[in-house]
From TrEMBL:
<dbReference type="Pfam" id="PF00005">
    <property type="entry name" value="ABC_tran"/>
</dbReference>
<protein>
    <submittedName>
        <fullName>Phosphate ABC transporter ATP-binding protein PstB</fullName>
    </submittedName>
</protein>
<dbReference type="InterPro" id="IPR003439">
    <property type="entry name" value="ABC_transporter-like_ATP-bd"/>
</dbReference>
<feature type="domain" description="AAA+ ATPase">
    <location>
        <begin position="40"/>
        <end position="231"/>
    </location>
</feature>
<keyword id="KW-0547">Nucleotide-binding</keyword>
<dbReference type="GO" id="GO:0005524">
    <property type="term" value="F:ATP binding"/>
</dbReference>
<dbReference type="InterPro" id="IPR003593">
    <property type="entry name" value="AAA+_ATPase"/>
</dbReference>
<keyword id="KW-0067">ATP-binding</keyword>
<keyword id="KW-0813">Transport</keyword>
<dbReference type="InterPro" id="IPR017871">
    <property type="entry name" value="ABC_transporter-like_CS"/>
</dbReference>
<dbReference type="InterPro" id="IPR005670">
    <property type="entry name" value="PstB-like"/>
</dbReference>
<dbReference type="InterPro" id="IPR027417">
    <property type="entry name" value="P-loop_NTPase"/>
</dbReference>
Length: 269
């Protein structure tokens, strides 16, 4: 793999940039030498086999790796041109502006209302909370389903509804970017479709990165796709790297690397 193959011209303004980023856990390199430009108001998909570092790179973009013991990030990650790892930067503020939705829907064991209000309050929101709750739930396409159940527990909802509640919770703290780590892998196809439609609406206002193992999902929802792979080390480990990053249509129909073609067509799936 040469770095020349790993990227192509950036189509629009990059909101987040990774330059020569490597991450290790307890001194063992997990993923190395990643360059990415994440375009604003687009959906970028990270695809590739298990263990190639997709979630690891995703977590670098909002400093979630700070919370993982033994994790070390090297290289440069910028957000609107500012080094996210500069020591003057507050990682909590980074996570407010770059929110995250996880694989398994994880509403708090609180009411639907509190699931939205809690984070907003902690972030110092002083406006009309009822309005914010409604606005966030509407944006996450779940308001109609829950408007009469504000005092019910968020856990009483179906898996798909819980995930949309978690998206509403992320939205409530007014991020610019939403990172989604396999947000549909625990959901049925109908709930998955709802979230995909929602992502298309959200990208008008937010920049989205999604990690997914679902090739059809990546080709359906994303504008740009980053394909990762991992190479074996002599010690029997694996090190992830970025194979290529391009418009999704190119990755799926005319990739630069044969291995990408094999992977996205399911030959190695
Ligand atoms: N908290 C951690 N502590 C130690 N090693 C970790 C940790 N998280 C990830 N790793 C290692 O880093 C490498 C990349 O893992 P990561 O989860 O980023 O890959 P991935 O491509 O997202 O995988 P998957 O598709 O299975 O979720 C793997 O070898 C994994 O074991």
């Amino acid at each position: 793999m040469s770095q020349a193959n790993a990227s192509s011209a950036t189509p629009s303004k990059a909101v987040l940039k990774a330059e020569n980023v490597s991450v290790s856990y307890n001194s063992k390199v997990a993923v190395k030498g990643v360059y990415l430009d994440i375009p604003i108001n687009q959906i970028t998909a990270f695809i590739g086999p298990s263990g190639c570092g997709k979630s690891t790179i995703l977590r670098c973009f909002n400093r979630m790796n700070d919370l993982v013991s033994g994790a070390k990030v090297e290289g440069l990650i910028t957000f609107h041109g500012v080094n996210l790892y500069d020591r003057r930067i507050d990682p909590v503020e980074v996570r407010r502006r770059i929110g995250m939705v996880f694989q398994k829907p994880n509403p708090f064991p609180k009411t639907i209302y509190e699931n939205i209000a809690f984070g907003a309050r902690i972030n110092g929101y002083v406006g009309d909370m009822d309005e914010l709750v409604e606005k966030s739930l509407r944006k996450a396409a779940i308001w109609d389903e829950v408007k009469d159940k504000m005092k019910d527990s968020g856990l009483s909802l179906s898996g798909g509804q819980q995930q949309r509640l978690c998206i509403a919770r992320a939205i409530a703290i007014e991020p610019e970017v939403i990172l989604m780590d396999e947000p549909c892998s625990a959901l049925d196809p109908i709930s998955t479709l709802k979230i995909e439609e929602l992502m298309q609406e959200l990208k008008e206002q937010y920049t989205i990165i999604i990690v997914t193992h679902n090739m059809q999902q990546a080709s359906r929802v994303s504008d740009r796709t980053a394909f990762f792979n991992a190479e074996a080390t002599p010690e029997g480990g694996k090190i992830g790297y970025l194979v290529e990053f391009d418009d999704t249509v190119n990755i799926f129909t005319n990739p630069k690397e044969d291995y990408t073609r094999d992977y996205v067509s399911g030959r190695f799936g």
